[in-house]
Amino acid sequence: MSSTAHGTTPYYFVPQPSRHPVMASIGLFFVILGAGQWINGQDWGMYSLMFGMVWWLTVLFQWFSQAIQESESGQYGYKVDLSYRWSMTWFIFSEVMFFGAFFSALWWARMHSLPALGSLENALIWPDFKAVWPTLAAGATASPAGIVEPFQAMTPFWLPTVNTALLLTSGVTLTIAHHALQLGERSKTIKFMWMTVLLGVIFLFVQGYEYAHAWSDMNLKLSSGVYGSTFYMLTGFHGFHVFVGMLMLLFVTLRLQKGHFTAEKHFGFEGAAWYWHFVDVVWLGLYILVYWL
After folding, report:
1. CATH class of residue range 77-292
2. CB under 8 Å to 16, separation ≥6 — which residues?
3. Per-residue pLDDT tens for 29-71?
4. What are φ and ψ of residue 188, in 5° steps?
5. pLDDT for 232-256, tens place per residue?
6. Which CATH code of 3.30.470.20, 1.10.287.70, 3.50.30.80, 1.10.287.3510 fits the domain covering 1-75?
């Protein structure tokens, strides 16, 4: 047993039986069912998807609220804190593998599939095909079977570069907020956290504008061959992760305003910060491999 500001904290915390896991699973069932049916042309799938999302998010809100209440009431000790740290570590590791798969797909397409299509053997079948990645040669976007419409490849200027600056700046403001929290400067922490959240929101708006420009003005779509599919998969999933990370930071900021977290105990803050810095690192790799090379 150990003593804290909230009273006596148990070495191990054994939660009561909870309905939240099965309720969340029910919501996800309707999400997957609806998405599958909607994609296959069933209009009712959209309503199932929306119902499942509302159900699932409601359960998550109740679940997280209960966890926050347990933490603030002093029921979480060292072992629970350690379990959260390991859980977040493995979660981020799984995200590394997730993005690693898409980066590997991009590498394989450029370094193996494209040269194979441009080999002497295939040149007899598609004599006009250019085995050049679209970012390396203007106009090299023709497909062997002629099924891909001409499109323009993305460049790093200027929207991707602006977004890079936004994310790097958000990493700095988040680090300043973390150090301020460790020093007990709550007002400074809250101010820099709001700056970080705002930078994340601006990033998403800039990426949305970039997508609209690419789709309408550059004719770059998901159907634009392997270049278009890998571009939207990598940048789209990263944008989703920015959105999730921004929500994490937003809720942490709101909790800070309610007086949650202390200089000694604030893993909820640290976990969100870990995730945000991971998102920053992924973007740097994406910025170089997708926009520059």
Report:
1. mainly alpha
2. none
3. 999 999 999 989 899 999 999 999 999 999 999 999 998 998 8
4. -65, -40
5. 999 999 999 999 999 999 999 999 9
6. 1.10.287.70
